[in-house]
Amino acid sequence: MKQVKLSVLSAAVLATMSVNVQADTDFKFGGYVKTDVMFSDYSNGAPDSGALSRQFYVPGTIYGDATNGKQVVDFHARESRFNFKTTTDMDGHKLVGFISLDFMTHGDGNERVSNSYSPRIRQAFVSYDNWAAGQMWTTFQNPGALPENLDFVGAAEGTPFVRQTMVRYTNGGFQFSAENPETTVNGYQTGTRITSGSGFVPDFVARYNMKTQDGMAFTFAGIARQLNVEQDDIDASKFGYGVSFTGVIPVGNDDIKMSATYGDGLGRYMALNYANAGVLDANGDIETISSYGGYISYRHWWNDKLRSSITASGFVADNDVSLTGEAVNKDSYSGYINLLYSPIKPLTVGVEYMYAQNTKESNDEGELNRIIFSVKYVL
Question: What is the pTM of this model?
Answer without folding.
Answer: 0.90
